[in-house]
Amino acid sequence: MMIGTNRTVRGVAVTNPVGEPSLGGEDERALRRRIVERAVAMLATDVEPKTVWEGRT
Amino acid sequence: MKVVHYVNQFFAGLGGEDAAGTEPVRLEGAVGPGKGLGLEVAVTLACGDDYFGEHEEGALARLLRWLDEEQPDVLICGPSFGSGRYGYACGSFAREAARRGVPAVCGMHPESPGVLAAEGAAYVVPTDVKVTGMRDALPRMAALARRLASGETLGPPDQEGYLPRGVRRNEIAERTGAQRAVDLLLAKLAGDVRTEVTATFDDVPPPPPVADMSNATVALVTESGLVPRGNPDRLESNRAHAWMSYPLEGLDGFDVADWETVHGGYDTSVANADPDRLVPLDAVRRLVAEGSIGSLHETLYTTTGNSTPVATAAKFGQEIAQRLREAGIQAVILTGT
Q1: What is the residue extent of each domain of chain B?
Q2: Which CATH class is domain B3-160?
Q3: Given its phi and psi angles, is residue B210 left (phi above 0), alpha (psi -120 to 50 degrees) or beta?
Q4: Angle at Cα B233 formed by Cα B228 and Cα B236, nearest 5°?
Q5: A1 and A8 in contact (C-beta within 8 Å)?
């Protein structure tokens, strides 16, 4: 992992870390919510240094 | 070789904190730790740590006058270990001596203010923070001093055991960069991982998890360059000089009419069509409403993370973190591009 942050949720893309324009609308908002839920879960989890979780799955 | 040694009032045996106001003195021969250098010290100069700090110009003038009278081959200062005032005096005196043609060696902890005070003019040998590092520090300082006194040019810091001075020296490589890159790749394939340039990052242990997110206050921070439309505070598209904060009260999401990104490092068209794609304000509000997150801090912290020098970024991070701590935030969601 390149930058040494301890809790990272992998976002969608550089241009839209928490968005997916090809989805749009409710589907995109649902994806964004899922990524944020992963972040919330990770904040409440004991992790090893430099841990990356997937955001979309 | 002729050596002059500089110490503070304590190591000169003149007293402790009670003698910190001692004016500069000149003593014959080696005193205190100077005796452990393994070199013949012609003269020891000493000054109280407080006196130096409070009368820097006058103290330096006197010390430099004595130094000029002695015309030594090298000046050794300290070791001052973790000491702030003593380290500052050592670094300052060493700097001025070096700029007047007397090579100078200090010994101190890398985080001592004396390192910056030396401004790369003097050589600083890294030591332990505590005085117990004396036996380790003295021979290393003496070795460097001997070589400098003989007029030797030293190699790079990591090879010679001193702290980087901020000096770049050009060298002609025998093989081209392309050849050296292939060498490194072949070595890596064989399991030998080497690099010519090292990127270093802080190793920060992960903080313990938040016990109960449903009761926690979360803050939103971003380096995506998100700002109110019109960029009222003129956040830069790259090399940001500052971070900014904007109120989130009453906002359930980022409306395109009111927000935009000014980041110059990526294509912003997708984000500017829907700024929640950069900072998930709408999603966080919903999770707060549902109770998964206790509350949202009503201020957004934002900057442009594009060609930002690491030192600047670190400063931004420390400043924002300080604000968040003062505000009692438990957790941060930071989005990056």
Answers
A1: 3-160, 213-335
A2: alpha beta
A3: beta
A4: 95
A5: yes
C-alpha–C-alpha distance, residues B222 and B302, integer Å: 5
Measure B52 CA to nearest chain A CA, in Å. Answer: 41
Residues 6 or more apart whose Cβ sits within 8 Å of residue B17: none
Length of chain B: 337
Residue A22 CB partners (closer than 8 Å, separation 6+): none
Which amino acid type is present at position B221? Answer: V
| Contact assignment for B203 to A3 by CB distance below 8 Å | no
Arithmetic mean of pLDDT, B217-241: 97
The interface residues of chain B toward chain A in range 308-337, judged by CB-CB distance below 8 A, are: 331, 333, 335-337
Binary contact (A43, B282; C-beta < 8 A): no
Residue among B205, B268, B280 minimizing CB distance to A36: B280
Question: Among candidates B301, B334, B328, which has minimal Cα distance to B216?
Answer: B328
pLDDT digits (tens, 9 = 90+) for B38-54: 999 999 999 999 999 99
